[in-house]
Design brief:
alpha+beta; 168 residues; Alpha-Beta Plaits
Length: 168
Amino acid sequence: PEDWSFLIVIPASRSFDEIQELEVFEKLPTPHEKLVYEACYRILLGMAPAVVEKNIRAFGENLTKLQEVVGAMFSSAQEGVFQPHSAPLIEKLREMGAIGVGQSSWGPAVYALFDPEKRENIVKVLKEEILYGDSIKETGGTMYGVSEWGELYFTHADNKGAVIKAVK
């Protein structure tokens, strides 16, 4: 739903490059079928229905659980459920009241889902406590800024997707 608020943080630190990632995938053990089942369950019977029902709490809970399950599949390669540089940031996002949290692939990006009713409060916290004041820009419902965490984008869901135009 378009009113759901997402905070995306892109830290300056990187995880694996493409070559390292291929090497890591080759060494990873086959995930236990229980983990694969749990991941499918969270997506098909948790997240998908929650979007249709516009149940942000159920979506966030299942998103976080999915991230923990997928993280367990890759924990031997990334030193835990989340990358070492992502884990403290994810914990801070939870402390800020995130309903759901996750890490993009191996990172470095992390993201959090926030209750739209608390959007004004989150914006206030970001502006007063986290973002460097001179870096803040707002446009089209998205706030961008820089902090010690890295680049931050606080935005909402986009139900339109990409727009492709013919170039003549």
